[in-house]
Amino acid sequence: MKPIDPAILSALQQLLSQDDQPLYRGELTGLVEQVLENRTRYLEAARRFGTPQYLFEEPRLQAQIQRFNAAFARQGLVARVHYAFKANPSLCLVQAIQRAGLAADASSGLELELALRCGFERIVLSGPAKTDEELALALRHAGRVTVHLDSFAELERLEALAARTQTTMRAGVRLNTQGHGLWTKFGIPFTALPEFTAQAGHHRHVQLEGVQFHLSWNRQAGGYLHTLAELGPVLGQCAPPAGWKFADIGGGYYPEDDEAAYPWLTRRGRLLSLLGLAPAEGPPPDWNLEYLLHPVQPIEAMAREIMDAFQAHLPGGLEMWLEPGRYLANQAVHLLLRVNDVKTPELAITDGGTNLLGWERLEGEHTPLINLSHPSLVQKPCRVYGSLCTPHDLWGYACYGEQLNPGDILMLPAQGAYVQTLAQRFIKPLCQTVALDLQGEMRQVSPAETLADRYPQLG
Ligand SMILES: Cc1ncc(COP(=O)(O)O)c(C=O)c1O
To answer: Domain range spanning residue 242?
Structure first.
């Protein structure tokens, strides 16, 4: 690359020093404190069942469910919470959700079968381009399922299949907004709702009752508020013969305080490295353990604003349906790892690899890594890698702990959402899951993958 003119470089440097995103140090220690309170139990789980392991903590799941339910409880408004299976459909977690009385959001035939087998009484079947087999399964369980239709063509297919078995099938329709970019893959535009409603009105077997939308990764209520304001007038323009019964506002509620971003990956950080003023990857040598935190509105405040907008903009008497996944599951599962090799005091390698997360997420996102064997509320810089044959197999650039010794047990807390489902069979086997129940009992609920699981043809 041609050297940059010193005057331009100096101007850029000056510009870059005016960073408007504050960086914080130690802001996630609340999560670390929470983990260390239960340290003995976690160490026991590692000792009894070995590592690596996913540790499912039912008390934490139930606490999240209660908090979410309480946040959306309001007199005069029916809120029905469907757990989004896609976030984590592991059996122990899904069964605990069912015991807690929630409804289910299934996005495939497989998830629908699981929800039915686990005894969920109210299920939505969502997702694009459902197969005839998936729709037929929903029809066989029409008493328990509502199908969220994704297109005009899907409406026609469902009607034809329902007519064959003379079944009445409750349905919603998924809506997308113009502001959605790639998300226009899903559903039909808001503006097409009157036409869709009219077309559904000609059918005898599909009974349209509601609408659905979904917005991902919401740290504030704003997106829901805009969408509800946009939806209100559209719902007012048209209605099925029996009227609208529900509006499903989807998932996307962000949990608080369990991750942060690395400053060298912010726009400013990337520009600095592009200009050759910072290393091409990883932390600069003078990194002082500061992170960028995206503020997350507590669920109670978010719920209040959403319910206000729901009641202000939508016709009265509508049920509010919700589909949280991440919010409920994330804090309920942790990863336990063992340090297998310490190359220098600042470089250690664990038994499990980041194939257990599914992708190289922790190169770009910070989650506290906690040494349960030598705990500390102070974070020290060090690189902790997994044992896969790739340098991208990284758990983090720092660890809460005194020092790293071979045999130490490390915990990566709050890994319950989009982790077990995304885990890959890359080099190493998928690991076991251990469950800690409401009585404090622990048991292995699924074993680690074996050669026979991966190669059944070997016999
Ligand atoms: C339709 C729908 N509902 C619910 C969810 C769950 O979202 P989250 O886990 O962010 O709450 C998703 C996730 O993509 C979704 O597409």
So the answer is: 58-257+292-330
